[in-house]
Specification:
By secondary structure, the chain is of the alpha/beta class. The protein has a single domain, classed as Class I glutamine amidotransferase (GATase) domain (Rossmann fold, 3-Layer(aba) Sandwich). It is built from 7 helices and 10 strands. The strands form 2 sheets. An 8-stranded mixed sheet has the order 2-1-3-4-10-9-8-6. Strand 1, helix 1 and strand 2 form a beta-alpha-beta unit. Helix 2 crosses helix 3. The longest helix is centred in the C-terminal third of the chain and has 28 residues. It is globular. About 45% of the residues are buried.
């Protein structure tokens, strides 16, 4: 039986899979990783992996002039979402899904940084976010988005109404970081954006205190959420129609090479 394959798109080195790695591996996936700065990124067929995971990043979806790979990724992501291939987006990754589905990403009125719970909407049947209900999770963003058509809003916060949504059971977008709470890269986030907590009305000391208090429980809840979502995915994992041309940013067709991320995992920062 063919092993299922997951591809992580990492937009910056210090925003990786973190606590979500465990439930994804437990669900039987072999995990590959690609950084957007990798020369191979522009020619990967994003329809090919059984599961696509897009993590966070400090850039805005609207900054395509500054980051040309965003437009490239959006074109290929749109094709994957149209095929209803299993896809998970976290923070910037969730905003990319919103944009690809017809929403609009834009700078919000204020920063949302710190640990607090989201309100999980009961109207959505079998909402996977019920596992994080009343659990403070990490938020770290300033952008938000309009809700695309034909999606279910799964959660909101007191700062931003659009915190999580899904289309069908295969596409899940999470604005918050339920994967973070135990990963040492949290220190890199604070070092990279020391002003973030203050801009959100807090301070570094209170943010670190909340991380120590809530981090482990937040990750455990996030892992249960992802495990439940993966368990509900269609086991058939439909492949893209072979007669369709691959959308990429180069003139040649290329596919995900097995073992690509195995070499990348030798780097000091893991996915």
């Amino acid at each position: 039986m063919r092993q299922k394959r997951a591809l992580i798109i990492r937009h910056v080195p210090h925003e990786g899979l973190a606590g979500f790695r465990s439930p994804i591996e437990a669900a039987g996936y072999h995990i590959d990783r690609i950084d957007v700065e990798d020369p191979a990124f522009g020619s990967l067929d994003l329809c090919e992996p059984d599961l696509l995971i897009m993590m966070g990043g400090p850039m805005g979806v609207y900054e395509q002039d500054r980051y040309p790979w965003i437009a490239c990724q959006l074109r290929r992501l749109t094709r994957r979402l149209e095929a209803e291939r299993p896809t998970l987006g976290v923070c910037f990754g969730a905003q990319m899904i919103a944009q690809a589905l017809g929403g609009k990403v834009y700078p919000g009125m204020r920063k949302e940084v710190g640990f607090h719970p989201v309100t999980v909407h009961a109207h959505a049947p079998d909402n996977p976010l019920r596992f994080i209900e009343r659990q403070p999770v990490l938020h770290w963003h300033g952008d938000t988005f309009t809700l695309p058509d034909n999606v279910e809003l799964l959660a909101s916060s007191h700062v931003y109404h659009h915190q999580a949504f899904r289309r069908g059971r295969a596409i899940l977008a999470l604005q918050f970081h339920a994967e973070m709470g135990l990963d040492p890269r949290f220190d890199a986030w604070i070092a990279q954006w020391p002003e973030a907590a203050a801009e959100a009305g807090g301070c570094e000391v209170s943010l670190r205190t909340a991380h120590r208090k809530h981090g482990a429980a937040a990750v455990a809840a996030g892992q249960a959420m992802i495990a439940h979502w993966l368990d509900g995915l269609d086991n058939s994992f439909r492949m893209p129609p072979l007669h369709q041309a691959t959308v990429n940013c180069t003139s040649s067709r290329a596919h995900l090479l097995p073992g690509l991320a195995e070499e990348k995992r030798k780097l000091s920062l893991t996915a």
